[in-house]
Amino acid sequence: MKLTGVLFFPATPFDSSGEVDTDALARHVATGVEHGTGGVFAACGTGELTSLSRDEQALVVRTAVRETAGRVPVLAGAGGPLGTALDHARAAADAGADGLLLLPPWLAQGPAEGLREYVAAVAAVGPPVILYQRGPLVLSPAEAVELGRIPGVVGLKDGLGDIDRMQRIVLAVRAALGEDFTFFNGLPTAELTQPAYRAIGVDLYSSAAFAFVPEVAGAFNRALGNDPELVRRLLNEFYAPLVELRSTVPGYAVSLVKAGLRLRGHEVGAVRPPLVDLGREHLAELSRIIDAGLALAREAS
Question: Given 2, 118, 132, 252, which residue is catalytic?
Fold first, then answer.
């Protein structure tokens, strides 16, 4: 499983009755693949894993695997109570997913040895596991090395944004486990911090923006390392305003993606509670931000 380029976290579309819309999901995944993503992460945070039933998670993963048809790796979201995480992992294995993104257990928190047993149990199902450091899962370098030694654990997605901690984790894990362990920046709008992550040796990142403006995300990715002026303009005119808007309401990291997709003509339905959709004023601001980003992407093409 080799992840490259911009990592794509598709939204999970719902139809008018609130059910998973597999046709819309297939189109959404196909668009991401056509725009050059290096990996599809289905039924993860942006895909509203925490609001999906176990059957719905399985349906989303099967749809993504079928649509990608082996062109890029597909990883499935897993997490929650151990029984649910194991069900997620088994469904992903049955669907032919290439790996798992393991979210921290919700609510229940135990000591380090308990977390290790949780991770080991999920990894034993089969698909390679990337750990998601966020919320209650905050690792020390030594803890990251210990979890990285579990058979089947192959990577770490960072959703904390603590550069000092991540630098120490990267150094410790690579010294102990080698260069093949995968790290990527998984902050909600990772492009804003990606220049800093590149400086500590983490080149890979996920992109929420890729889900609804792949043209902008692609332009930013191509500009990293060779067009600092375009990077600066995209950060100033698109990504920074997007982060400001995202910060106004809890849960907007997901709501903005679905709103952006709808603004661009993709029928993906609403977000599920406890998330809320954008109000009229915020929707107008998002439309303005999208227009600014697309204008810059067109200039760069």
Answer: 132
